[in-house]
Fold this protein.
Amino acid sequence: MLNDEMSQGGALSRPLSLRGAFAAALALSSAGGAAHAQQISPFMAGVRNDVRLGPATRYATPDGQLRFVFDRSGGRYALLRFEGDPEVHILRAVGAAGGDEIYRNDANDIALRVTPHGGVILYTRAHSTGAPAAEEGASAAIAPQAIAVAQYQARMRQVQAAAARALGRAIIFEAPANVTGPNAGLVLDAAERAAATLAASPGITVTRVIIRVGPAPAARRTGEALDIQVAPNMGYAGRPSNNSLRSVLQGPER
């Protein structure tokens, strides 16, 4: 069950129930959610990582086709966000030969290699053998956007309406109602990750997305419900990624 209140401190609130693209109004309810979500992976469990501390920095491939921010300022996880892509990728570092560090995402794919001298090599589907990335300058640290309650509620309605249009059917998003600050930004991002993953998963029917707050990021699918748990104290690492949600949707129900 959800508790009663959530403020900037991170306690839970009543869930915000968003009734689909053709809803007449925002409905607030205190209905209980599904069973507690199941932890997705030890990758997301919040264990401190040996990421080398460094500022958030902007990089670009030589052809200028890919630009991204690589942020190692947090010390627990490294963060990667491509220009034009709203998803923030959570990376873990693994030592490699010659003093290099390899950064892998939660699907265990190599995303970046950093040399002892600070050189950065990017790996994507289009650059499977790696492409050097040149530093373009400093960037602000990657963190969930601080959002006021009214803006948060409006944007949650927009996410649900967009999801309904993409899926061609009604879908309900339930989330804490009175969230504010960076917590609101994280819950909203979790809703956006869910909407994007569902839109890219044809043949999987989910009619309700339930977002709750807990000690670690997690997700499970039960029938036509997708239950997501976020941990605001972990920043972007506190919400399931697109990869994680895709695995949950395509795997057996729990």
